[in-house]
Amino acid sequence: MKKIISICMLVLCMVSLTTYATPEVPKPVSTTKAKVTTYNIRLGYRNLDGSLTTSVSTESPGFTAYNQESGDEYYGENGPSSFGTFLPYQLPGIMTGLPEGTYEFSAERGQGNWTGYGSVTVTLSPEMIGADGYVTVYVPIAWVE
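User: That's the sequence. What structure does it adopt?
Assistant: Structure tokens below.
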């Protein structure tokens, strides 16, 4: 009987020691960025010669963004130009808070109708966000009179 009690005590001690001796497994630290659900957009032009600009006076009052999944349309305005009525607007165009998705961006025609604009399709993703928090999109100029 003494032997059985000794064996039971030994087994209990071993179970206790293994329970306390097992190291706690640390939880992994997430290295992924938090998922971005809205985007701030800076809009400019891809000129006929292929150059890009986000700081020029323009007759276009702003830009549109059509969400191809939801069918929603968003509008962004250009700022006032120092040229007055001849070229009343200034780039960049700005849109804030666009939900994630695939968009067709285009420029609105101005009153003079001196410039024709194409469109560009962009799927917004976190990798596109610049250091300043904006995604820059360039709408192509199709023709100029």
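The longest strand covers residues 89-99.
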